[in-house]
Amino acid sequence: SAFGELSMRHIVGSGTVSHRANVDRVQCRVRYTKSSENDYATSSVCTTENGRYEISGHVTNIGGNRYQGTVTSGNETGRVIMVHRGDRQSVTVTSPNGSAKLTLSRR
Fold it and tell me: Does 9 have pLDDT greater than 90?
């Protein structure tokens, strides 16, 4: 898959995090490591003006260019949906406390 080429590479991007009534800009650097044919482990470092967050998780290919899985930061877990198009990915994370939307591209 085209996604396989991203394995072990860093991709970077930015977006917004919404938490209750607040919306913050966020920048992330993400690394994918293939763990089985359709599964990837992810590790990310994201920064906002409020701090730096380390996020880990995994995604599974659910058909075509769509992936879904979970991510964890501290004691918060969210659900992630990712759509991969060419060199770009759009990522949506939803958790009980908020949500995030990111666009990532390979560097």
Answer: no
Percent of the chain with pLDDT over 90: 64
pLDDT value of residue 90: 95
Two structure tokens written together for 57: 């998780």
Type of residue found at 69: G
Tokens 């930015």 sit at which residue? 14
Q: Whole-model pTM?
A: 0.85
Q: What is the 3-state secondary structure (H, E, C) of 41-102?
A: EEEEEEEECCEEEEEEEEEEEEECCEEEEEEEECCEEEEEEEEEECCEEEEEEEECCEEEEE
CA 75 to chain centre: 17
- Residues making up the chain, counted from first to last: 107
Residue type, 64: G
CA 33 – CA 101 distance, rounded (Å)? 22
Q: What is the per-residue pLDDT for 1?
A: 47
Residue 97 CA neighbour count, 13 Å, CB half:
7
